[in-house]
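Appendix B, Record 12. Input sequence as logged:
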Amino acid sequence: MANLDGRVAIVTGAASGIGFAIARDLARQGARVAICDVADPTAAVATLRGEGADVVGVRADIADEEAVAAAHAAVVAAFGRIDILVNNAGLFTTITRAPFDQLDVAEWRRVIDVNVTGTYLFSRAVWPSMRAAGGGRIVNITSGSVWSAPAMMLHYVTSKGALTAMTRSMAREMGPDNITVNAVAPGFTISDGVLEHRHDMLATAAGRARSARALQRDQAPGDIVGAVAFLCGDGSAFVTGQTIVVDGGAVMR
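Logged structural output:
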């Protein structure tokens, strides 16, 4: 386990699903946690406080530069510092699946804005705070689809490919400030969003994902948290610019 006592973590897209699982795990390992989401984080905050966590909620659209600046300021006001940023927020379960030449350009731009630009904006916002603290950890949640390249999802796969490349470039730039930047790439995960919005994928993508894995079972949000916690802790202090694929052995690289 990572010992995160005294550290402050922001997890974006953490009101539910994978982000909430990550926020809960970081809190259980001693971190003070800020849940940032475009959705109302009140219920998630109440749940974690009920478990004894020191947690605050901040509502923000991460694709909005002013909203990100305000969210960053709110976390610093609440906790005084920022040591960890997990860029988890992204569009997936609500996007259109279609041949790439039939994708709506407005939706394409929104996926890129949230999945790529949002990560850039939040990482840029926390950089001065982490520098002042003497270092930090940034973990970007990308996707195994970068390697499996499923059809009908070009906007999503493109966004996660960009995020994977961004991880490496940010690691180069932030390394002199003792900030590590890494990524975790889950496989198809049975998240709250999938259960709520994509019943079609439960009947199709879930079965294909299971059969492609060395560990042939469904992936749950809890399968991802260990890799994230490792990259947030002292045990990964000399690991940066890397992507850890957590998908039960579908992608082996």
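The chain has a mean pLDDT of 93.
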